[in-house]
C-alpha cells in the first residue's frame, strides 16, 4: 500500500501549538486527574520509562473537558503536561468512524481512513511532535473513546515523518496496564514442564463479512475449523510442547482441565470474546457463540485467577476480542489475565478473519522465538501485512490466491499490553 502524501489534512501541528501547560496527577490505574502540582512528581512509577528512545503518552479523555496529555520521556526530564484543543465529545465520532471504516474494509474506505488518521495524528501527537523525533518506542495509556482507538492507524505528523505513514510503521507501540504481573508469584507453578496452550472454536462460524471482491472473486473455499485451527497452530513456532484444544475439544471442561494440568507459558485463544459494558461479569470467552450459557467462560468472576496455572511472565493472546464501541478497550480481559499471572496480553479491538490472522501470528511467534519483545514482534508482523500480499493455498488442483491485507482492518486492531513502561521497552 502506498504511504505517500495523503489528501485532506485539515489541521497542522501548528494549529495545536496553543495547547496549555497544566498540572497532572496519575493514579495507580490509567486514568489521569488534574491537580496543582506542576512538577508531575505524582506520576505513577509504572508510567516512567528509564531507557533512551522510549516515551510514555497518557491521555485523559474524561467527558466535558479538554483531553489532557502527559508525556514522560526515558531521558529523565520532567513530564510535559498539556491540555489539547479537543475534548472527548469531539473525538468520539472520529474514533467511531475509524473503527466503522476499518470493519467495512473495502479499498474505497482507505482514503477516508487516511484523512481521519491525519487529523487524529495532528490532534493527539502534533503538540509533542518535536519531543517524539528521537523516540522509537511509544508506551500508551488512554481512557474514554481513545481506549477504543486503533492508535497504530493514526498518521505520524508530517513534521517528524514527511511520508505521513501510519504510526505503527514508524514507532513500536505498547499499552500499559499495571494489573499485568499483579498476580505473578516469585515461583512458577510446580506442575509439568512449560507448554503452549492453543484453543480454537468448538463451533465453526463463517466470517461476519466477506473478505471483499479480491477474495470472493478468487473463489476461496471456507473449510470448517481450519482457519482458526491454523491460526492457533502458529504457536508451534515457539518450539515449546503445544497442548491443542480444537473443535469439540475446545469445551470449558477441557479448557479448565488443560489450564490446571500444565504450567502455561503461552496461551493462544482463537475464539470469540466480548465485552459487556452493562455487566462486566458477562464479559466472556465464547467457546461456542451459539450456546453462551454452556460454552462461555466469564472473565469478571475470578475464575481465571483461581484455576489458570500461568507461568511467570506468560503471554496471553486474544485474537478475536470484540471491544465494541464502548470506550472501554480490552481492559476487562487484560485485568482478568493479569490477576491470573500474565505478564503480557495481546488483544484485538475487533474480530479479524482468521485467514489473515494466521499469517500475522505466524510472523509474530516467529519473531518471539528469535528473542523479540512482544511489542516489537507485533510491529514486525503488522509491517509484513502492509508490505506484501497474503497467499492462500486453495487445495489440490486449484491455483493459490493472493490478496492485499494492507487495509487497517487486518492489522490495526491488535495491541500489546504490559505492566509498565520499562517492560514495554
SSE diagram, text form:
Blueprint lengths: L19 E2 L3 E2 L5 E2 L20 E7 L5 E8 L6 E8 H17 L5 H16 L11 E6 L24 H4 L1 E5 L18 E6 L12 H4 L9 H8 L8 E4 L6 H10 L2 E7 L1 E3 L9 E3 L5 H4 E3 L4 H5 L2 E9 L2 E2 L8 H9 L2 E7 L5 H16 L4 H14 L2 E3 L8 E3 L10 E5 L2 H4 L1
Parallel strand pairs: 4-7, 7-8, 8-20, 9-10, 9-11, 11-15, 12-16, 15-17
Antiparallel strand pairs: 1-6, 2-3, 4-5, 5-6, 12-13, 13-14, 17-20, 18-19
Helix pairs in contact: 1-2, 5-10, 10-11
Which keywords apply here?
single chain; 425 residues; Nucleotidyltransferase, domain 5; Rossmann fold; 2 domains; 12-stranded mixed beta sheet; disordered N terminus
Account of the protein in words:
This protein is an alpha/beta fold. It folds into two domains: 13-176, Nucleotidyltransferase, domain 5 (2-Layer Sandwich), CATH 3.30.420; 195-206 and 216-424, Rossmann fold (3-Layer(aba) Sandwich). It is 26% helix and 22% strand. The chain has twelve helices and 20 strands. It is globular, with a radius of gyration of 21 Å. The two termini are 28 Å apart. The model is unreliable at 1-39 and 204-224 (pLDDT under 50).
Shape: globular
Number of helices: 12
CATH architecture of the largest domain: 3-Layer(aba) Sandwich
Please summarize the sheet with the most strands: 12 strands, mixed
**What share of the residues lie within helices?**
25-40%
Amino acid at each position: 500500500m502506498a504511504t505517500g502524501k495523503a489528501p485532506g489534512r485539515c489541521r497542522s501541528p501548528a494549529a495545536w501549538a496553543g495547547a496549555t501547560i497544566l498540572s497532572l496527577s496519575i493514579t495507580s490505574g490509567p486514568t489521569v486527574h488534574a491537580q496543582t502540582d506542576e512538577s508531575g512528581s505524582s506520576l505513577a512509577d509504572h508510567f516512567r520509562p528509564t531507557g533512551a528512545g522510549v516515551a510514555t503518552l497518557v491521555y485523559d479523555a474524561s467527558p466535558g473537558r479538554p483531553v489532557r496529555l502527559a508525556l514522560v520521556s526515558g531521558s529523565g526530564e520532567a513530564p510535559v503536561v498539556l491540555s489539547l484543543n479537543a475534548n472527548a465529545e469531539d473525538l468520539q465520532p472520529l474514533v467511531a468512524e475509524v473503527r466503522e471504516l476499518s470493519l467495512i474494509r473495502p479499498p474505497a474506505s482507505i482514503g477516508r481512513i487516511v484523512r481521519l488518521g491525519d487529523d487524529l495524528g495532528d490532534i493527539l501527537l502534533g503538540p509533542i511532535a518535536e519531543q517524539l523525533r528521537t523516540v522509537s518506542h511509544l508506551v500508551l495509556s488512554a481512557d474514554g473513546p481513545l481506549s477504543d482507538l486503533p492508535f497504530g492507524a493514526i498518521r505520524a505528523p508530517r513534521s517528524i515523518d514527511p511520508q505521513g505513514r501510519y504510526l505503527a510503521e514508524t514507532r513500536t507501540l505498547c499499552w500499559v496496564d499495571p494489573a499485568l504481573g499483579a498476580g505473578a508469584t516469585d515461583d512458577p507453578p510446580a506442575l509439568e514442564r512449560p507448554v503452549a496452550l492453543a484453543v480454537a472454536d468448538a463451533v465453526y462460524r463463517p466470517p461476519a463479512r466477506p473478505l471483499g471482491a479480491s477474495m470472493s472473486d478468487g473463489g476461496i473455499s471456507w473449510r470448517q475449523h481450519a482457519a482458526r485451527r491454523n491460526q492457533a497452530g502458529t504457536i508451534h513456532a515457539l518450539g515449546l510442547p503445544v497442548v491443542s484444544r480444537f473443535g469439540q475439544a475446545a469445551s470449558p471442561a477441557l479448557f479448565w482441565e488443560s489450564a490446571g494440568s500444565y504450567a502455561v507459558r503461552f496461551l493462544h485463544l482463537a475464539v470469540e470474546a466480548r465485552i459487556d459494558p452493562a455487566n462486566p461479569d458477562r464479559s466472556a470467552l465464547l467457546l461456542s457463540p451459539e450456546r453462551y450459557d454452556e460454552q462461555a467462560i466469564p472473565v469478571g468472576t475470578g475464575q481465571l485467577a483461581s484455576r489458570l496455572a500461568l507461568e511467570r511472565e506468560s503471554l496471553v493472546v486474544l485474537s478475536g476480542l470484540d471491544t465494541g464501541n464502548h470506550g472501554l478497550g480490552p481492559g476487562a480481559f487484560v485485568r482478568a489475565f493479569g490477576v491470573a499471572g500474565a505478564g503480557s496480553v495481546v488483544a484485538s479491538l475487533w474480530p479479524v478473519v482468521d485467514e489473515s490472522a494466521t499469517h500475522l501470528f505466524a510472523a509474530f511467534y516467529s519473531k518471539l522465538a528469535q528473542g523479540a519483545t512482544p511489542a516489537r514482534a507485533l510491529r514486525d508482523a503488522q509491517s509484513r501485512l502492509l508490505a506484501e500480499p497474503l497467499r492462500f493455498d486453495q487445495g489440490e488442483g486449484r491455483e493459490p490466491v493472493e490478496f492485499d491485507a494492507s487495509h487497517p482492518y487486518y492489522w490495526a486492531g491488535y495491541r500489546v499490553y504490559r505492566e509498565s513502561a520499562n517492560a514495554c521497552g
